[in-house]
Specification:
Radius of gyration: 20 Å
InterPro entries: NAD(P)-bd_dom_sf, Sacchrp_dh_NADP-bd
CATH architecture of the largest domain: 2-Layer Sandwich
CATH topology of the largest domain: Dihydrodipicolinate Reductase, domain 2
Strand content: 25-35%
CATH class of the largest domain: Alpha Beta
Protein name: Saccharopine dehydrogenase
Distance between the termini: 40 Å
Number of domains: 2
Length: 382
Protein backbone atom coordinates (compact mmCIF):
# COMPACT_ATOMS: atom_id res chain seq x y z
CA UNK A 1 0.00 0.00 0.00
CA UNK A 2 1.30 3.44 -0.94
CA UNK A 3 2.46 5.61 1.93
CA UNK A 4 0.80 8.93 2.67
CA UNK A 5 3.86 11.12 2.08
CA UNK A 6 6.47 11.04 -0.65
CA UNK A 7 8.86 12.75 1.74
CA UNK A 8 9.04 14.33 5.18
CA UNK A 9 11.57 17.07 5.91
CA UNK A 10 12.68 17.29 9.55
CA UNK A 11 14.03 20.69 10.56
CA UNK A 12 12.33 22.35 7.60
CA UNK A 13 12.39 25.82 9.16
CA UNK A 14 16.18 26.14 9.06
CA UNK A 15 17.90 28.37 6.52
CA UNK A 16 19.50 25.55 4.51
CA UNK A 17 16.29 23.51 4.62
CA UNK A 18 14.40 26.53 3.31
CA UNK A 19 16.85 26.75 0.41
CA UNK A 20 16.20 23.07 -0.30
CA UNK A 21 12.43 23.65 -0.31
CA UNK A 22 12.85 26.55 -2.75
CA UNK A 23 14.89 24.31 -5.03
CA UNK A 24 12.26 21.57 -4.89
CA UNK A 25 9.58 24.12 -5.75
CA UNK A 26 11.59 25.27 -8.78
CA UNK A 27 11.72 21.64 -9.87
CA UNK A 28 7.98 21.15 -9.32
CA UNK A 29 8.54 18.55 -6.58
CA UNK A 30 6.28 19.69 -3.73
CA UNK A 31 3.20 17.47 -3.94
CA UNK A 32 2.80 15.08 -0.97
CA UNK A 33 5.76 16.61 0.87
CA UNK A 34 5.41 17.30 4.60
CA UNK A 35 7.65 19.96 6.16
CA UNK A 36 7.98 19.81 9.94
CA UNK A 37 9.87 21.90 12.47
CA UNK A 38 9.77 22.12 16.24
CA UNK A 39 9.45 25.94 16.24
CA UNK A 40 8.37 27.52 12.96
CA UNK A 41 9.03 31.22 12.50
CA UNK A 42 6.03 32.90 10.86
CA UNK A 43 7.98 34.01 7.79
CA UNK A 44 9.45 30.57 7.04
CA UNK A 45 6.14 28.83 7.69
CA UNK A 46 4.34 31.19 5.33
CA UNK A 47 7.04 30.77 2.69
CA UNK A 48 6.88 26.96 2.81
CA UNK A 49 3.09 26.95 2.60
CA UNK A 50 3.18 29.37 -0.34
CA UNK A 51 5.46 26.94 -2.18
CA UNK A 52 2.92 24.14 -1.77
CA UNK A 53 4.32 22.15 1.16
CA UNK A 54 2.12 20.79 3.94
CA UNK A 55 3.28 22.27 7.25
CA UNK A 56 3.29 20.75 10.70
CA UNK A 57 4.89 21.82 14.00
CA UNK A 58 6.47 18.88 15.77
CA UNK A 59 9.61 17.99 17.71
CA UNK A 60 10.32 14.80 15.81
CA UNK A 61 13.14 13.77 18.14
CA UNK A 62 11.30 14.22 21.42
CA UNK A 63 9.28 11.00 21.16
CA UNK A 64 10.65 7.89 19.36
CA UNK A 65 7.13 6.51 19.02
CA UNK A 66 5.94 9.68 17.33
CA UNK A 67 8.94 9.55 14.99
CA UNK A 68 8.18 5.92 14.11
CA UNK A 69 4.56 6.83 13.35
CA UNK A 70 5.75 9.63 11.08
CA UNK A 71 8.32 7.54 9.20
CA UNK A 72 5.97 4.60 8.73
CA UNK A 73 3.84 6.84 6.51
CA UNK A 74 6.57 8.26 4.26
CA UNK A 75 8.81 6.95 1.50
CA UNK A 76 11.71 9.31 2.24
CA UNK A 77 12.85 11.23 5.31
CA UNK A 78 15.14 14.23 4.77
CA UNK A 79 17.00 15.02 7.97
CA UNK A 80 17.94 18.72 7.98
CA UNK A 81 18.16 18.91 11.79
CA UNK A 82 21.72 19.04 13.06
CA UNK A 83 24.06 18.73 14.75
CA UNK A 84 24.40 15.36 13.09
CA UNK A 85 26.70 13.94 15.72
CA UNK A 86 23.51 14.00 17.83
CA UNK A 87 20.71 13.44 15.31
CA UNK A 88 22.30 11.44 12.49
CA UNK A 89 22.27 7.89 13.82
CA UNK A 90 19.11 8.53 15.85
CA UNK A 91 16.97 9.33 12.81
CA UNK A 92 18.78 6.92 10.49
CA UNK A 93 18.12 4.02 12.87
CA UNK A 94 14.39 4.82 12.93
CA UNK A 95 14.37 5.13 9.12
CA UNK A 96 15.90 1.67 8.83
CA UNK A 97 13.41 0.23 11.33
CA UNK A 98 10.50 1.69 9.34
CA UNK A 99 11.94 0.84 5.89
CA UNK A 100 12.04 4.52 4.94
CA UNK A 101 14.64 5.95 2.57
CA UNK A 102 16.92 8.56 4.16
CA UNK A 103 18.91 11.66 3.17
CA UNK A 104 20.83 14.26 5.17
CA UNK A 105 23.47 16.98 4.76
CA UNK A 106 25.69 15.71 7.59
CA UNK A 107 29.09 17.38 7.65
CA UNK A 108 30.25 15.97 11.01
CA UNK A 109 33.22 13.66 10.50
CA UNK A 110 32.89 11.80 13.79
CA UNK A 111 29.45 10.42 12.95
CA UNK A 112 30.36 9.38 9.39
CA UNK A 113 31.76 5.94 10.24
CA UNK A 114 28.99 5.12 12.76
CA UNK A 115 26.41 5.96 10.08
CA UNK A 116 28.21 3.87 7.45
CA UNK A 117 28.25 0.89 9.84
CA UNK A 118 24.46 0.81 9.44
CA UNK A 119 24.97 -0.23 5.80
CA UNK A 120 24.13 -3.92 6.27
CA UNK A 121 20.99 -3.12 8.29
CA UNK A 122 19.82 -0.63 5.64
CA UNK A 123 20.48 -3.16 2.88
CA UNK A 124 18.46 -5.79 4.76
CA UNK A 125 15.62 -3.27 5.14
CA UNK A 126 15.75 -2.55 1.40
CA UNK A 127 16.30 1.20 1.81
CA UNK A 128 18.69 3.76 0.36
CA UNK A 129 20.36 6.15 2.83
CA UNK A 130 22.39 8.97 1.25
CA UNK A 131 24.41 10.87 3.87
CA UNK A 132 26.25 14.18 3.49
CA UNK A 133 24.35 15.42 0.44
CA UNK A 134 25.01 19.15 0.81
CA UNK A 135 27.76 21.39 -0.51
CA UNK A 136 30.78 20.00 1.35
CA UNK A 137 30.32 17.12 1.64
CA UNK A 138 27.96 16.59 -1.26
CA UNK A 139 28.84 18.56 -4.35
CA UNK A 140 32.54 18.23 -3.48
CA UNK A 141 32.37 14.41 -3.51
CA UNK A 142 30.53 14.35 -6.83
CA UNK A 143 33.04 16.71 -8.45
CA UNK A 144 35.88 14.52 -7.20
CA UNK A 145 34.21 11.45 -8.65
CA UNK A 146 33.74 13.21 -12.00
CA UNK A 147 37.45 14.04 -12.01
CA UNK A 148 38.69 10.53 -11.23
CA UNK A 149 36.21 9.05 -13.69
CA UNK A 150 38.06 11.15 -16.29
CA UNK A 151 41.63 10.98 -14.95
CA UNK A 152 41.74 7.53 -13.44
CA UNK A 153 43.24 6.88 -9.97
CA UNK A 154 44.81 9.81 -8.10
CA UNK A 155 47.13 9.97 -5.12
CA UNK A 156 45.68 13.06 -3.45
CA UNK A 157 42.56 15.17 -3.12
CA UNK A 158 42.90 18.50 -1.31
CA UNK A 159 39.71 20.38 -0.43
CA UNK A 160 39.91 24.05 0.55
CA UNK A 161 37.00 26.27 1.59
CA UNK A 162 36.32 29.58 3.27
CA UNK A 163 33.10 31.09 4.61
CA UNK A 164 32.22 34.72 5.29
CA UNK A 165 31.73 35.55 8.96
CA UNK A 166 28.34 37.11 8.14
CA UNK A 167 27.01 33.68 7.10
CA UNK A 168 27.74 32.03 10.45
CA UNK A 169 24.42 31.11 12.05
CA UNK A 170 24.13 29.52 15.48
CA UNK A 171 24.16 26.02 13.95
CA UNK A 172 27.05 26.87 11.61
CA UNK A 173 29.17 28.12 14.52
CA UNK A 174 28.61 24.90 16.46
CA UNK A 175 29.57 22.79 13.45
CA UNK A 176 32.66 24.88 12.66
CA UNK A 177 33.92 24.48 16.21
CA UNK A 178 33.24 20.76 16.11
CA UNK A 179 35.50 20.54 13.04
CA UNK A 180 38.49 21.49 15.24
CA UNK A 181 38.08 18.06 16.89
CA UNK A 182 40.14 16.24 14.28
CA UNK A 183 39.04 12.72 13.33
CA UNK A 184 41.39 9.92 12.27
CA UNK A 185 40.53 7.60 9.34
CA UNK A 186 39.47 4.94 11.87
CA UNK A 187 37.03 7.38 13.52
CA UNK A 188 39.13 8.29 16.58
CA UNK A 189 38.57 11.90 17.66
CA UNK A 190 40.87 14.46 19.33
CA UNK A 191 40.61 17.49 21.57
CA UNK A 192 40.79 20.94 19.94
CA UNK A 193 44.51 21.54 19.40
CA UNK A 194 46.43 24.54 20.66
CA UNK A 195 47.27 27.31 18.19
CA UNK A 196 50.86 26.10 17.73
CA UNK A 197 49.64 22.60 16.86
CA UNK A 198 47.26 23.72 14.09
CA UNK A 199 48.20 23.07 10.45
CA UNK A 200 47.69 26.10 8.20
CA UNK A 201 47.61 26.71 4.45
CA UNK A 202 47.22 29.99 2.58
CA UNK A 203 45.07 29.50 -0.53
CA UNK A 204 44.18 31.81 -3.42
CA UNK A 205 40.46 31.70 -4.24
CA UNK A 206 38.86 33.29 -7.30
CA UNK A 207 37.52 36.82 -6.99
CA UNK A 208 36.01 38.32 -4.96
CA UNK A 209 37.46 36.16 -2.18
CA UNK A 210 41.20 36.24 -2.83
CA UNK A 211 43.92 34.81 -0.60
CA UNK A 212 42.74 33.34 2.69
CA UNK A 213 44.34 31.50 5.61
CA UNK A 214 42.87 28.05 6.29
CA UNK A 215 43.39 25.36 8.91
CA UNK A 216 43.12 21.58 8.76
CA UNK A 217 39.64 20.62 9.97
CA UNK A 218 37.66 17.43 10.42
CA UNK A 219 35.19 16.70 7.61
CA UNK A 220 33.63 13.58 6.08
CA UNK A 221 35.44 13.72 2.71
CA UNK A 222 38.87 12.61 4.02
CA UNK A 223 37.09 9.53 5.39
CA UNK A 224 34.80 8.67 2.47
CA UNK A 225 36.78 9.70 -0.63
CA UNK A 226 39.57 7.09 -0.20
CA UNK A 227 36.96 4.45 0.73
CA UNK A 228 34.69 4.91 -2.27
CA UNK A 229 36.96 6.28 -5.01
CA UNK A 230 40.40 5.31 -6.40
CA UNK A 231 42.15 7.98 -4.30
CA UNK A 232 44.90 7.28 -1.77
CA UNK A 233 44.54 10.33 0.48
CA UNK A 234 42.16 13.24 1.01
CA UNK A 235 42.54 16.36 3.14
CA UNK A 236 40.22 19.16 4.22
CA UNK A 237 41.26 22.73 5.07
CA UNK A 238 38.66 25.34 5.94
CA UNK A 239 38.34 28.74 7.49
CA UNK A 240 36.37 31.86 8.24
CA UNK A 241 37.08 35.23 6.73
CA UNK A 242 38.35 37.73 7.64
CA UNK A 243 41.27 36.01 9.38
CA UNK A 244 40.41 37.55 12.74
CA UNK A 245 37.15 35.57 12.61
CA UNK A 246 39.14 32.35 12.19
CA UNK A 247 41.31 33.27 15.18
CA UNK A 248 38.29 34.22 17.30
CA UNK A 249 36.49 31.04 16.26
CA UNK A 250 39.43 28.81 17.19
CA UNK A 251 39.92 30.61 20.52
CA UNK A 252 36.33 30.03 21.64
CA UNK A 253 36.30 26.48 20.22
CA UNK A 254 39.43 25.72 22.27
CA UNK A 255 37.94 27.20 25.44
CA UNK A 256 34.57 25.46 25.05
CA UNK A 257 35.84 22.15 23.57
CA UNK A 258 32.95 19.75 24.18
CA UNK A 259 35.30 16.78 24.54
CA UNK A 260 36.90 18.45 27.56
CA UNK A 261 34.03 20.47 29.02
CA UNK A 262 31.14 18.07 28.21
CA UNK A 263 29.30 20.98 26.58
CA UNK A 264 29.09 23.10 29.74
CA UNK A 265 30.51 26.22 28.04
CA UNK A 266 29.18 25.78 24.51
CA UNK A 267 26.00 27.86 24.63
CA UNK A 268 27.69 30.80 26.32
CA UNK A 269 30.63 30.68 23.91
CA UNK A 270 28.30 30.56 20.88
CA UNK A 271 26.42 33.59 22.18
CA UNK A 272 29.70 35.45 22.58
CA UNK A 273 30.83 34.58 19.04
CA UNK A 274 27.50 35.68 17.56
CA UNK A 275 27.80 38.94 19.48
CA UNK A 276 31.24 39.39 17.87
CA UNK A 277 29.70 38.66 14.44
CA UNK A 278 26.95 41.20 14.97
CA UNK A 279 29.43 43.85 16.08
CA UNK A 280 31.05 43.54 12.64
CA UNK A 281 27.76 43.68 10.74
CA UNK A 282 28.80 46.80 8.84
CA UNK A 283 32.13 45.38 7.66
CA UNK A 284 32.77 44.72 3.98
CA UNK A 285 31.73 41.25 2.86
CA UNK A 286 34.42 38.92 1.47
CA UNK A 287 32.29 35.94 0.44
CA UNK A 288 32.81 32.19 0.19
CA UNK A 289 35.29 30.17 -1.82
CA UNK A 290 36.05 26.57 -2.79
CA UNK A 291 39.10 24.94 -4.37
CA UNK A 292 39.43 21.18 -4.97
CA UNK A 293 42.69 19.75 -6.30
CA UNK A 294 42.61 16.15 -7.59
CA UNK A 295 46.16 15.18 -8.43
CA UNK A 296 49.19 12.94 -8.36
CA UNK A 297 52.40 14.85 -7.59
CA UNK A 298 50.65 18.13 -8.35
CA UNK A 299 49.34 17.07 -11.76
CA UNK A 300 45.63 16.62 -12.36
CA UNK A 301 42.54 18.84 -12.21
CA UNK A 302 41.35 21.81 -10.15
CA UNK A 303 37.83 23.04 -9.44
CA UNK A 304 37.58 26.58 -8.11
CA UNK A 305 34.88 29.09 -7.24
CA UNK A 306 34.50 32.40 -5.46
CA UNK A 307 31.22 34.09 -4.66
CA UNK A 308 29.72 36.79 -2.49
CA UNK A 309 26.68 34.56 -1.98
CA UNK A 310 25.83 32.65 1.18
CA UNK A 311 25.87 29.00 2.24
CA UNK A 312 22.14 28.35 2.21
CA UNK A 313 21.64 27.73 -1.51
CA UNK A 314 24.99 26.00 -1.97
CA UNK A 315 23.96 23.43 0.66
CA UNK A 316 20.20 23.23 0.20
CA UNK A 317 20.14 22.87 -3.58
CA UNK A 318 22.32 19.71 -3.72
CA UNK A 319 20.10 18.20 -1.00
CA UNK A 320 17.09 18.82 -3.25
CA UNK A 321 18.89 17.15 -6.15
CA UNK A 322 19.67 14.10 -4.02
CA UNK A 323 16.07 13.82 -2.85
CA UNK A 324 14.74 14.01 -6.40
CA UNK A 325 17.20 11.37 -7.62
CA UNK A 326 16.15 9.04 -4.79
CA UNK A 327 12.45 9.52 -5.51
CA UNK A 328 12.97 9.01 -9.24
CA UNK A 329 14.82 5.75 -8.61
CA UNK A 330 17.99 7.06 -10.26
CA UNK A 331 19.83 6.12 -7.08
CA UNK A 332 18.89 2.48 -6.69
CA UNK A 333 21.71 1.31 -4.43
CA UNK A 334 20.58 -0.07 -1.08
CA UNK A 335 22.41 0.56 2.17
CA UNK A 336 24.10 3.63 3.65
CA UNK A 337 26.47 5.52 1.38
CA UNK A 338 28.04 8.95 0.75
CA UNK A 339 27.63 11.15 -2.36
CA UNK A 340 30.55 9.47 -4.17
CA UNK A 341 28.08 6.87 -5.47
CA UNK A 342 25.87 9.51 -7.17
CA UNK A 343 26.27 9.68 -10.95
CA UNK A 344 27.78 13.11 -11.80
CA UNK A 345 25.80 13.13 -15.04
CA UNK A 346 22.51 12.54 -13.19
CA UNK A 347 23.41 15.11 -10.53
CA UNK A 348 24.09 17.92 -13.00
CA UNK A 349 21.05 16.98 -15.08
CA UNK A 350 18.70 17.57 -12.13
CA UNK A 351 20.75 20.51 -10.87
CA UNK A 352 19.88 22.45 -14.02
CA UNK A 353 16.17 22.12 -13.16
CA UNK A 354 16.39 23.31 -9.54
CA UNK A 355 19.34 25.71 -9.45
CA UNK A 356 19.13 29.49 -9.28
CA UNK A 357 21.96 29.63 -11.85
CA UNK A 358 25.39 31.14 -11.56
CA UNK A 359 27.83 29.76 -9.03
CA UNK A 360 30.99 30.56 -10.95
CA UNK A 361 32.58 27.10 -10.66
CA UNK A 362 35.56 26.68 -13.01
CA UNK A 363 37.63 23.68 -14.03
CA UNK A 364 41.26 23.74 -15.12
CA UNK A 365 44.17 21.42 -15.56
CA UNK A 366 46.70 21.27 -12.74
CA UNK A 367 50.41 21.07 -13.51
CA UNK A 368 53.04 21.08 -10.75
CA UNK A 369 50.40 22.44 -8.38
CA UNK A 370 49.51 25.40 -10.61
CA UNK A 371 46.24 25.95 -12.50
CA UNK A 372 46.67 25.77 -16.26
CA UNK A 373 44.34 25.38 -19.22
CA UNK A 374 40.64 25.97 -18.62
CA UNK A 375 38.25 23.11 -19.35
CA UNK A 376 34.49 22.70 -19.53
CA UNK A 377 32.85 20.76 -16.71
CA UNK A 378 30.45 19.20 -19.20
CA UNK A 379 33.45 17.53 -20.87
CA UNK A 380 33.92 15.46 -17.72
CA UNK A 381 30.35 14.19 -18.03
CA UNK A 382 30.48 13.13 -21.68
Amino acid sequence: MARKWKAVVIGAGGSQAQAMLRALARGGATQSWLAIDRAWRPETKDAAEAMGFVIQQMDALADPGQLDELLSHTDLVVNMAGPYYRTGTAILDRAIANRTNYLDISDDADVTIPMLTRNAAAEAAGISALIGMGSSPGTTNILIRAAVDKLGPADDVDIYWTVDLADMTNAAVRHFWHCFNLVDPDGSTHDVAGWDQLEFRDIDFPDPVGRQRLVRLAHPEPITVPRYLPVKRASNFGGLNPEEALITGWCLAHIADERRTKGKLTDAAVDLFLHYRDQRAGAARIGSGLVIDIHTNGNGLRFASGSDGGMDDSTGIPAAVGAILLMQGRIDRKGVFPPEIVSPKDFFSVLRDVSVGGGGLTLSTLANGMAGERMRIRDLLA
